[in-house]
Write a structure and sequence with these properties.
The chain has helices at residues 3-12, 26-31, 33-63, 68-96, 102-197, and strands at residues 14-15, 21-23. The chain has five helices and two strands, in the order αββαααα. By secondary structure, the chain is mainly α. It has two domains: 15-64, no CATH class; 67-157. The protein has a two-stranded antiparallel sheet. Strand 1 (14-15) and strand 2 form a beta hairpin.
């Protein structure tokens, strides 16, 4: 191989700081497809480890976490809203000049307490259920993506095996054709030699 061609191949090919390929030479890949295939697989694995694995781990941690954090957040929001509503009710009552008896104030306070407990429990349950549903949908989507990747990988492996088999078959055919040509030439030479001998 000439120096110029070798330098062109090396310029096309790029590697990271660890010596792993990040870009393949098309010329070198044509010359050695098995090596190029191996390096392509290494590049894809390195890219997955660097770019997608941390995201996948983070997403997995989020979708398998308990929904209690979201339930507590919902509880806090509902408690704030109830306090605002109760304050508004008391201000409206004061503006109207209405004076409540102790019995009325107690009944209103109990009703507000029951409504508050009911609203808080409902918000927490809705939040838990929504978080679980979202997490299950995300898990199903991840499983679907994984199956798609696996299916594509299997198809690509089958295609690569087919190409390797095709190359081997073409090489065998070329070798057989060359052997046949050589035998024909030998046969013709033997025939000519026999003709001259007679």
């Amino acid at each position: 191989m000439g120096k110029k061609l070798k330098s062109l191949m090396e310029a096309e090919e790029q590697r990271d700081e660890n010596g792993n390929p990040t870009r393949l030479s098309t010329k070198r890949a044509r010359r050695n497809p098995e090596r190029a295939q191996k390096e392509l697989i290494q590049m894809q694995e390195a890219d997955f480890d660097k770019r997608f694995k941390p995201l996948e781990a983070d997403l997995r941690a989020q979708i398998t976490a308990s929904p209690e954090y979201q339930a507590r957040q919902a509880d806090t929001q509902v408690t704030k809203q109830i306090a605002l509503t109760r304050g508004q009710f008391n201000r409206d009552l004061g503006r109207s000049g209405t004076r409540l008896t102790d019995r009325q104030a107690g009944a209103i306070s109990r009703n507000q307490g029951l409504a508050s407990a009911k609203a808080t429990a409902s918000a927490k349950n809705i939040s838990r259920r929504g978080t679980r549903d979202t997490n299950l949908e995300a898990q199903a989507a991840m499983i679907g993506i994984g199956r798609d990747v696996q299916s594509t990988a299997n198809k690509d492996i089958a295609a690569a095996a087919g190409l390797a088999s095709g190359r081997a078959s073409a090489q065998n055919s070329a070798d057989a054709a060359q052997e046949g040509s050589r035998n024909q030439m030998l046969g013709a030479a033997v025939g000519l030699a026999a003709a001259f001998a007679l």
